[in-house]
Amino acid sequence: MGLTFLALMLMLILAACGGGDSNEEESTDSSGEEGSEESNSEGPEIGQEELTQPYVAWARETISTHMLAALLEKVGYTVDLKQVEAGAMWSSVADGSADFHTSAWLPATHAPYWEQYSEDIVKVKQVLDSAPLALAVPSYMDVTSVEDLKGNEELGESVNWTITGIDPGAGIMQNTEEAMEEYGLENWELTSSSEAAMLTELQAAVENEEPIIVPLWKPHWIFGTMELTMLEDPEEIYGGEGDQIFTVARDGLEEDAPRAYKVMEQYNEDYDMLNEMMPKVHAEDQDPAEVVQEFIDNNPDLVDEWLEGVPTE
């Protein structure tokens, strides 16, 4: 009995020691995992998790809107994209019913919107420099300047004294109305429709080598498909060397969604990336979300720059 009792006691002691080692190891592993989670969560807080991003379905804006939405979803947000007209894009961010947009063309094109809403909207980041706007014609037309339109009977009659425009709320339409007044184009009419409708008319005219005058801008995929001339604008109604494009947000978003704001501060663009994606969406009719995701998958180093210091979900 005594020996049996001593043996049992020894087994209990050894088991207790072994259990201690197991617990200690488990504790170490758990601590390591917790440390890893803490490391992954370093950076700005997510804050408001649902964001609304309005946009106009212009060539560049379709790409940039889906790109920024995809990046924000990688870091934990749900982004609701709303396709609207230009006026609603600006007013919804200003009144707080939307959170940000990527389409502020300043200082010229969207000057009226900025003057109206600048107290409620902040510039987050300039994402693209040198975004010129102008009236444009097919290069086979003998026109080089907006001044060439004044009193030009032959040209005017060939296009029914019409400049074929886009959606009426677009800044370039307001620029064109001002240009018509500044350059004395009293006989001319600016029609409005949409960018897609304007491009359809432009493509049909070029296919038949017919004259047409349209408002256009860069970056735009159409310049990769046909030879076009942007008309000189001596009075710089369209902004001279070109606008810069900014991401803008509602006042208070930086405090409400710090992680999203940091991504916006680090995101930028260049002509190469836009020229790679725009034709796929607008000329080949691919899904913009899929085109953007393909770019993200193929450019991990660039994405790392945009998301530096930001935890991903």
TrEMBL record:
Residues 20-49 are annotated as: Disordered. Residues 22-40 have a biased composition (Acidic residues). One of its GO terms (biological process) is glycine betaine transport. The keyword Cell membrane applies. Residues 1-18 form the signal peptide. Keywords: Cell membrane, Membrane, Signal, Transport. It comes from the Bacteria. InterPro entries: ABC_Gly_betaine_transp_sub-bd (IPR007210). It holds the Pfam family OpuAC. Residues 55-297 form the ABC-type glycine betaine transport system substrate-binding domain. It is found in: Cell membrane. One of its GO terms (cellular component) is ATP-binding cassette (ABC) transporter complex. One of its GO terms (molecular function) is carnitine transmembrane transporter activity. The keyword Repeat does not apply. PANTHER family: GLYCINE BETAINE/PROLINE BETAINE TRANSPORT SYSTEM PERMEASE PROTEIN PROW, GLYCINE BETAINE_PROLINE BETAINE TRANSPORT SYSTEM PERMEASE PROTEIN PROW. This is Glycine betaine/proline transport system substrate-binding protein. It comes from Lentibacillus persicus.
